[in-house]
Amino acid sequence: VIRFPLIAACLILVFHPAIGFAGDDVKIGVVLPLSGPVSPTGAELRRGIEFAADEINHDGGIRSLGGAPLRVVYADSRGLPETGISETERLIFRERVCALLGAFQSGVTMTTTEVAERYRVPYVVLVSVAPSITQRGFRYTFRPTETAEIDTRVQMDYLKWIADRTGLRPRTVALVGENSEWGETSIELTKRLLPPDLRVLLDERYSPGTADFTTLVQKLKQANPDLIFLASYVSDGILLTQTLAQYHVRTMAILTRGAEHGDPSYKQAVGDFGDYQTWMVPFHPAQSRRQPWMESILAEYRRWYGTEITPFAATAYADVYILKDAIERAASRDPERIRAALASTRLTRGPAMLLPYPVIEFDAQGQNPHTTLPLIQTVRGTDYIVYPPELADPEFRPMYPMPEWREFANSSGAARWAQVVVNGLLNGGMYALFALGLSLVFGVMRVVNFAHGSLLMLSMFAAYGAWRVSGLSPYAVAPLVCAVLFLFGYWIQTTFLNPLLKRDMGAVEPVSPLLLTLGLALVLDSAIMLLFGTEYRSIHAGQNRVLALGSINIDVRKLVLLAAAIAALAFLNWVLTRTRLGLSLRAAAQDREAASLQGIDVYRTYAVAFGMSAATVALAGCLLAPFYYIHSAVGLVFLINGFLIVVLGGMGSLGGTFAGALLVGIVEAIVAQQYSPNVAQAAVFLLFIGFLLLHPEGLSRRRRMA
Amino acid sequence: MTSVRLAALIVFAASLPLFVRDAYLLQVATLTLLYAYLASSWNILGGFAGQFSLGHAAFFGTGAYVATMLQLQNGVNPWMGMLVAAAVGGFLSVLLGVPSFRLRGPYYSLTTIAFAELTRIGVMNTRQFLGWNVRGARGLLIPSIGQAPLRMQSLHKAFYFELALALLTFVIGLSAWLKRRNLGHQWAAIREDEQAAACLGINVLRAKLIAAFLSGALTAVGGVFYAQLVLYIDPARVFGLDLSVEMAVLALVGGSGTVWGPVLGVLALRSIAEWAQWTSGSNFRGIHLLLYGGAMMVVVMAFPRGIAGFRWRSARSGRLAEDPT
Fold first, then answer.
1. What is the rounded average pLDDT of the residues B223-245?
2. Does residue A279 contact residue A311 with C-beta atoms inside 8 Å?
């Protein structure tokens, strides 16, 4: 009886209409990733658009429409193609926008331009570089900026130019890219356009969100290519650059696509480790050294936002001016007329010329055929444009080859594999410290804690906050953070998990705690994101130290993690076997009812166990914080691997978990060395599935024991 | 729900495009129906048979890829591709089920995650497969061919809306029918206590595998529909862990193991999320995840049988024991 009205009410909510007002203003719709993993870039683009729109309105709006102000309506694609479609339709049908701008990610742009084409609304492509966007014969799609193919060509032209100037000709290259639509497109184009006399020594892909790059970097070092091409985003770029610097990988040149360098948080995180790489962005403030007219725009932006304009913000700013120019010439709000005006665009001056092209116009496919982009090299914190010559800083001579570059002697086979095993062990230590707490909770109360990664994230943020406020190093505040996280864990257990465990007493392997912690993880991650935003943060805690034992390099910070993991293991084992608390814990793990009949306060014991688990992961967080990026989603990097390790290690046996972590670390390193980081990731999953399938009876025996 | 009222509801829903001409509303409604369909498909294995899968994106992505590959490279009509995709998705689900159904509770859930991640990584790194051009991480773009309902494309949103509604009606009807069959009772017994079910002479593995086949096949069909709706698929999205988790969460919040629970869950959570998006604008980006997580915690703590179970109890609490699921 109640169901029907309930459904009707929900339907009304879902269809809740937002009434669009047809006012005097000129509405343009913008589709951006305002939430989701790339939302920092979405926020940047939004600033650029806001800045342009405010400036235009301040200068009297659209003159040919009687000074009608430009009004920008934002839509959040969440980075998903399907949400992008529905949001674009909202902009077209609800907001009745007369032109569109979007959508940064090529996947979203491809699907949303399709919508715009169908409903005949002109669409200016914002940043997306996938060549196919303007190869589909669309009439309403216009891309003023460059494609990934142009990116690649500019790199190749630079290489030829610099080789001619210096006489230093590279013979070998290595390609490293993230495994995504963009990374794959970039690396494939590089391979296609590479001069035939260059030999590809390495062609490696890694998954976005990879925990560690040591093996990959050492493979690069061993391959010793003359050139390295990179395609990475911010978080992976931070780790990759740090690792490259740590192991002194020096080639003639490292050429990156610039998606990491273009982000302000990258520079903060890597400091001068990013020096000498040659990177590219669609706009760079250094252009103003040759074109002083830009100064006023850049200064105004600085005055408004307190920061330097970013490459993406500048691109978005220019795109708004391109649209404004078309609307001005169309003298109409009619999308059809604006489209016609866009098609006949020919801009050579004005704010849109922040984009470093001689001319902005569109060919029959809607692509601007005159695009290029500046290649930049950073030297001691200052960016210099090195190429193309018409944009380059006249006084700066490109650092080519990179300083300190020399031919490396190839290490012997045995030493190489020893190094791989050492890397694996060190990573294993990192995984172990993360997984020990997971294993404790699993062993004592059979709870798969999905919020474990979020606890790691919280402790990293705590260490970061302490560093920002007091300048104390994460190592110094670790005890305090551990204590706070202990209390937090205790509270989670008493408030949420204990009532569940009491209720589902009868079930053999209840899933409800798993679901609760999954919900908790979502809440914690998104709460931190809402509070602290989505940019990547980092702590500068001095130089990376590498111990050299013969030809084997050992990262000191990871050695500390490994030592802490061993200490934590010893401590937890001592608690479990030598103390009253440990006795209660083991009793409660084996038989909850029997334990409580013995007078043990089982649920308090559980809370202490959860608290200890949170404290160990807090230690991991504090020790990771000095060399890792700090972000609301960082827990996910470790979570899935953590689960696999706990299961491999024999379900809640702490020693087994430790061994499992080392095993995973070593397998990853060896497979990454032999094949690629991607295959390494797959290998760990295979190892896990294989193990579970071979040993299900082993698991069930333990289950009966518990 | 009586069949008359049910028929009225379906007719009412099916006639919505007559009143609602707005493409945006129809698109949002279509996505809502698709999510309800996916949650209901998940529910057959995750709810009825009690096997808490967190890897259903593997079947969704497989469906999307198989049909799209057949369409792009062999010229197979997507309607035909849908059948093939269903068969492949169901087969894959059984293939995963045979070894993994020995595992229980969290072990099973973790194995499904590992399996789905393995397929995702596999597709992301495959450029060629059986002569098909998979394009790895770059994804596949389906060309728009205008008004062609016989090839599962249309210029009118109503087409996709009605198709999604038909899919949802089918899976709801199938669920309701199965639930009352012997198989449904077997599933319920397995969900409550697997060992007891085995002692009663139920072929546990067979019952689970049937659920796995149906659930996997239906989810794969959802993938085919998604591909034709969005016209672009990439492995990070269609094989993603986010998608697996979302299917499970929606069903769970609504009431897993009930026929209408997943639909209620989708309506409740998606309308809350849309509402949050409306009222807060983009100032609180990502707030929908906070709400999802919060709703999940509330449901797990307070209404273990989801929204559907909660309503059932308050309305007919006297007969709770008779059919609580």
1. 92
2. no
Average pLDDT over residues B260-274: 84
DSSP A93: I
Residue B95, pLDDT above cutoff 50: yes
ipTM: 0.86
Phi, psi (degrees; rounded to nearest 5) at B31: -65, -40
Q: Cβ contact (<8 Å) for A526 and B287?
A: yes
Nearest to B166 by CA among B156, B174, B178: B174
Q: How many residues does chain B have?
A: 325
Q: Would the CB atoms of B285 and A179 count as touching at under 8 Å?
A: no
Which residue ranges in chain A fall short of pLDDT 70?
1-23, 404-412, 506-509, 541-544, 651-652, 696-706
Cβ contacts of residue B300 below 8 Å, gap of 6+?
A500, A512, A515, A516, A519, B252
Q: What is the reported pLDDT for A21? A: 40
Say whether residue A512 is in contact with chain B using an 8 A CB cutoff.
yes
Distance CA B56, CA B42 (A): 7
Which chain A residue has the Cα nearest residue B20?
Answer: A15
- Do A179 and B115 lie within an 8 Å CB cutoff? no
SS3 A466: helix
At A364-422, the pLDDT tens digits run: 999 999 999 999 998 888 899 998 988 888 888 888 888 765 444 456 677 778 888 99
pLDDT > 70 fraction of chain A, expressed in percent and rounded: 92
User: What contacts A511, CB < 8 A, 6 or more positions away?
Assistant: B52, B105, B106, B109
Residue with tokens 């002083």: A292
The chain B residue lying nearest A205, using CA atoms, is B125
Nearest-CB residue to B290 (from A114, A205, A527): A527
To the nearest whole angstrom, how far is the Cα of A9 from the nearest Cα of chain B?
Answer: 10
Q: Which residues of A touch B290 (CB under 8 A)?
A: 522-523, 526-527, 530
Nearest-Cα distance to chain B for A471, in Å, is 30
Q: How many Å separate Cα A252 from the centre of its chain?
A: 28
- The tens digit of pLDDT for each residue in B185-226 reads 999 998 888 888 888 888 999 999 999 999 999 999 999 999
CA distances from A333 to A55, A70, A120, A341, B273 (A): 20, 11, 13, 11, 33
Contact yes or no for A142/A122 (Cβ under 8 A): yes
Contact list in A for residue B136 (CB cut-off 8 A) is 179, 184
What is this structure's pTM? 0.88
Q: List residues bridging with A227 in a β-sheet.
A: A173, A253
- Contact between residue A87 and residue A106 where contact means Cβ atoms under 8 Å apart: no
